[in-house]
Design brief:
Layout (H helix, E strand, L loop, with lengths): L3 H6 L7 E4 L3 E5 L7 E7 L14 H17 L7 E4 L3 H4 L8 E5 L9
Antiparallel strand pairs: 1-2, 2-3, 3-5, 4-5
This protein binds guanosine-5'-monophosphate and zinc ion (ZN).
Zinc ion (ZN) binds next to helix 1.
InterPro entries: Histidine_triad_CS, Histidine_triad_HIT, HIT-like, HIT-like_sf
Protein name: Histidine triad nucleotide-binding protein
Organism: Anaerococcus faecalis
């Protein structure tokens, strides 16, 4: 499958990996929008949040626990951070492998543009 994040997950494309286990990988975004900006993805190819199946519900909660662990390890919990998921065209999704952005260490505005 021609998916850049599957290729990152299986090591065909190099990336700056900050966390990895059997189900999930996290790596720094190549075009960071904040001093800390990494992506957390399932190794399983799921096109977007809109394509989640019932069987993926444990994986989704697991991803959020991984985000909690990474942000704790990076000491981000006190100042805070933002988790972003872009789904589909109007959501601004460019890579069709579900991913969660985590941005931190700058004061982020709301609402987004
Ligand atoms: P989206 O717009 O789909 O939510 O976000 C995709 C993100 O993936 C973008 O922030 C983009 O910079 C990042 N990205 C795309 N290709 C690569 C890549 O090959 N390596 C890394 N590290 N990030 C990528
Ligand atoms: Zn993929």
């Amino acid at each position: 499958m021609d998916c850049v994040f599957c290729k990152i997950a299986d090591g065909q494309i190099p990336s700056d990996i900050i966390y990895e286990d059997e189900k999930v990988i996290a790596f720094n975004d190549q075009d960071p929008q904040a001093p800390i900006h990494f992506l957390v993805i399932p190794k399983k190819h799921i096109e977007s949040l809109a394509k989640l199946e019932d069987e993926d519900k444990d994986l989704i909660s697991y991803i959020f626990m991984v985000i909690k662990k990474i942000t704790e390890d990076l000491n981000l919990a006190e100042d805070g951070y933002r988790i972003v998921n872009n789904t589909g065209v109007d959501g601004g999704q460019t890579v069709k492998h579900m991913h969660f952005h985590v941005l931190a260490q700058r004061s982020l505005q709301w609402p987004p543009g």
